[in-house]
């Protein structure tokens, strides 16, 4: 499994709807990665991916503290 956090809005179908820092719009990155590397891929917003990883493997797994990501556009 390959997990990719993108700095932008990820869609429910694991595509990138909008990533302004990369100048990407409506990119099917999941399809590109899966076809190139033959590995299942999950695309998620980078802040959500970081919070999920923290919840599973970091300090958050034993805490009620929430993860906050501050971004500058």
TrEMBL record:
Pfam families: ROK
InterPro entries tied to this protein: ATPase_NBD (IPR043129), ROK (IPR000600)
Family according to the record: Belongs to the ROK (NagC/XylR) family.
UniProt-recorded name of the protein: ROK family protein
Annotated source species: Schinkia azotoformans LMG 9581
């Amino acid at each position: 499994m390959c997990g990719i956090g993108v700095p932008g809005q990820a869609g429910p179908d694991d595509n990138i709807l909008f990533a302004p820092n990369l100048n990407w719009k409506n990119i099917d990155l999941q399809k590109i990665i899966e076809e190139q590397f033959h590995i299942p891929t999950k695309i998620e917003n980078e802040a959500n991916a970081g919070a999920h990883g923290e919840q599973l493997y970091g300090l958050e797994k034993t805490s009620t503290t929430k993860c906050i990501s501050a971004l500058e556009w």
